[in-house]
C-alpha cells in the first residue's frame, strides 16, 4: 500500500491536455441477456442499476481497437503532435497478446513513434493506477508528455451462461494526455494505491485447471473466463469505496462541498449510491453512466471522465476525485486540481 501528498514533490505540475473514449456500437440489453440466461430486466436493474452494456464484435473489435481509438481522440482533443508523447501506458487485463503489449501496438497506430510503452494490470483500477503513475513520472521530471489508456473488452472473458458475471460487464476505453506544467499546483494533490492479494480468488481469470483454488473447484465457468464470488466482492467494494474516498478527503482536508466531481469506477449503482449517501455528496457530484455502459473494468473511469470533459463539467475550479477498486484485490484514489 502506498499513499502520497504530492504538490511539494518535484519541480513541475501536471496538466491534462485532452481526453478521449471509445465504446463498441453493439448494445447488449437486459432483454437480450434474458434470452441467454435465466434473468430479466427488472432483476438486473434492481440489483445493479444496469439497463444495457456495449459489446465488441470479436471479429473486428477488442482491447486493441478500443484503446487505439480512444487514444487517437485524446490526441486530437489535446491538439498535440503524437511524436511529442514520451510514454504510453495502457491499463488493461484483457490484452489480446501479452507480447507485444497493447501500449506498444497503439503507440505505433497513433504515430507516437518515439514513445516508450507498457501495459499495467490492475483490473478495474487500471485507469486510476495509470493516472497516478503518469503524474508521478511527469512531476519528477523524467517525462514531459504521457498518454494513458484504461481499457477492457470484458465480453472477451465473459461466460455468457453465467448469470453472475454476464449481467455486469461491458467494453469501453478511456484515454488522456498528461503534460508538464510550470504551475506546480496543477495535477495530483494526493494519490493512494493499495492491494490485498490474499483474496485474489474472489475475482480472477484462470487459464489452467491447476490455478483454480480449491474453494472454487465446482465452478462451471470455462477456463479463460472471469470467475467472481459476487457476495464477497460486493462486501469488499461497499466498504473499500467509502473508505478510499474518506481517506482522500481527510488527507487533503477537503470537505464534501470542496469537491467538484467524484469520478468513480462503475461497478454497481447500489455501491455508488451507498457511498454517496453515507459521505453526503449530492447526486450531481457523483457521475453515473452504469445504466448505459455497465461495468467496463479499466475502461469505466476514463469513459466517465471523457464524457464529463465533453459535457463541460471538467476542468472545474474545485478538485476532482478519481476512485476505483477491483480484482487483485486492488483499490486506488487520485485527487486532482485540473
Question: What report would you give on this structure?
Answer:
The chain has 338 residues and is of the alpha+beta class. The protein has a single domain, classed as Thiolase/Chalcone synthase (Peroxisomal Thiolase, Chain A, domain 1, 3-Layer(aba) Sandwich). The chain is built from 10 helices and 14 strands. Strand 13 (320-326) and strand 14 form a beta hairpin. Helix 3 (63-78) packs across helix 4 and helix 7 (230-252) runs parallel beside helix 8 (269-279). It is globular. 52% of the residues are buried. The model has no long low-confidence stretch (mean pLDDT 94).
CATH superfamily: Thiolase/Chalcone synthase
How many helix segments? 10
Q: Report the strand count.
A: 14
Q: Give the SSE string.
A: EEEHHEHEHEHEHEEEEHEHHHEE
The structural domain count equals 1
Name of the CATH first level: Alpha Beta
* Termini Cα gap: 25 Å
Provide a short characterization of the protein structure.
Helices cover 31% and strands 24% of the residues. It has 338 residues and is an alpha+beta fold. The protein has one domain: 3-Layer(aba) Sandwich (Peroxisomal Thiolase, Chain A, domain 1).
Considering the chains and any ligands shown, give keywords for the structure.
Peroxisomal Thiolase, Chain A, domain 1; five-stranded mixed beta sheet; 10 helices; single chain; alpha+beta; 338 residues
Amino acid at each position: 500500500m502506498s499513499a502520497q501528498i504530492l504538490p511539494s514533490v518535484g519541480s513541475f505540475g501536471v496538466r491534462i491536455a485532452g481526453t478521449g473514449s471509445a465504446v463498441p456500437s453493439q448494445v447488449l440489453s437486459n432483454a437480450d441477456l434474458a434470452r441467454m440466461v435465466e434473468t430479466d430486466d427488472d432483476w438486473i436493474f434492481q440489483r445493479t442499476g444496469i439497463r444495457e452494456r456495449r459489446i465488441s464484435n470479436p471479429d473486428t473489435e477488442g482491447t486493441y481497437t478500443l484503446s487505439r481509438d480512444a487514444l487517437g481522440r485524446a490526441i486530437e482533443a489535446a491538439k498535440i503532435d503524437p511524436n511529442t508523447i514520451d510514454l504510453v501506458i495502457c491499463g488493461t487485463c484483457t490484452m489480446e497478446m501479452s507480447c507485444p503489449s497493447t501500449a506498444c501496438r497503439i503507440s505505433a497506430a497513433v504515430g507516437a513513434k518515439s514513445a516508450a510503452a507498457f501495459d499495467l494490470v490492475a483490473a478495474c483500477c487500471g485507469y486510476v493506477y495509470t493516472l497516478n503513475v503518469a503524474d508521478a513520472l511527469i512531476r519528477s521530471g523524467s517525462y514531459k508528455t504521457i498518454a494513458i489508456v484504461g481499457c477492457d473488452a470484458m465480453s472477451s472473458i465473459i461466460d455468457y451462461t453465467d448469470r453472475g458475471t454476464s449481467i455486469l460487464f461491458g467494453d469501453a476505453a478511456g484515454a488522456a494526455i498528461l503534460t508538464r506544467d510550470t504551475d506546480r499546483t496543477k495535477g495530483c494533490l494526493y494519490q493512494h494505491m493499495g492491494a490485498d492479494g490474499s483474496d485474489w480468488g474472489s475475482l480472477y481469470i484462470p487459464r489452467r485447471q491447476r490455478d483454480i483454488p480449491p474453494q472454487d473447484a465446482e465452478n462451471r465457468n470455462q477456463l479463460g473466463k472471469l470467475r467472481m464470488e459476487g457476495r464477497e466482492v460486493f462486501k469488499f467494494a461497499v466498504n473499500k469505496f467509502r473508505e478510499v474516498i474518506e481517506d482522500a478527503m481527510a488527507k487533503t482536508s477537503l470537505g464534501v462541498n470542496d469537491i467538484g466531481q467524484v469520478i468513480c469506477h462503475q461497478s454497481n449503482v447500489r455501491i455508488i449510491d451507498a457511498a454517496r449517501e453515507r459521505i453526503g455528496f449530492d447526486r450531481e457530484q457523483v457521475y453515473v453512466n452504469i445504466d448505459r455502459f455497465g461495468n467496463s473494468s479499466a475502461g469505466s473511469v476514463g469513459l466517465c471522465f471523457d464524457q464529463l470533459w465533453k459535457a463541460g463539467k471538467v476542468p472545474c475550479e474545485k478538485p476532482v476525485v478519481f476512485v476505483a477498486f477491483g480484482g487483485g484485490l486492488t483499490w486506488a484514489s487520485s485527487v486532482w486540481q485540473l
